[in-house]
């Protein structure tokens, strides 16, 4: 009977979402039994629509810009999602120079810090699952630093004294999908 309990527990734990948004908080799965919780404060949320998307939204406050994309099951990306998002982000915000100065990967997470136009830094967290993509731009670095510390106790945040960006984001990859074709129906 112990064997079947282990199998059922494994199925249950793998079905727990890696990310969720509820009660004005972001939750990120750290391990099988723990979530990292991030309080948002005031925010603006917009539902995004596209024929190829099951669920999508953008969320924005003074420190965080987030885009959640859950494509329909018969949809595929026309490239690697993070690379497509970086190109989209750079073009939409008119960024001339975007240099990656930190790139760390953990299971289902990619953390990147960028130097933007040689004047300030931005942090991006990319969370990927078999059914969804989450892109988080953290302009102040609080979520970026604290989530990484939960995933890796030895992480050292090296950007306390760097100039941080302050950009007003009103963009959406999903909104631009019909023109740019970032994803579409699989053949």
Describe the structure.
The structure is a single chain. This protein is of the alpha+beta class and 187 residues long. Helices cover 24% and strands 39% of the residues. The chain is built from 4 helices and 12 strands, in the order αβββββββαββββααβ. It has a 7-stranded antiparallel sheet with strand order 4-5-6-11-10-9-8, sandwiched between helices. Strand 8 and strand 9 form a beta hairpin. The longest helix has 14 residues, at 2-15. The chain is globular and about 45 Å long. The N and C termini lie far apart (43 Å).
Summary keywords:
about 190 residues, alpha+beta, seven-stranded antiparallel β-sheet, three-stranded antiparallel β-sheet
Question: Can you describe this structure in just a few lines?
Answer:
This protein has four helices and twelve strands; from the N terminus they run H-E-E-E-E-E-E-E-H-E-E-E-E-H-H-E. With 187 residues, it is an alpha+beta fold.
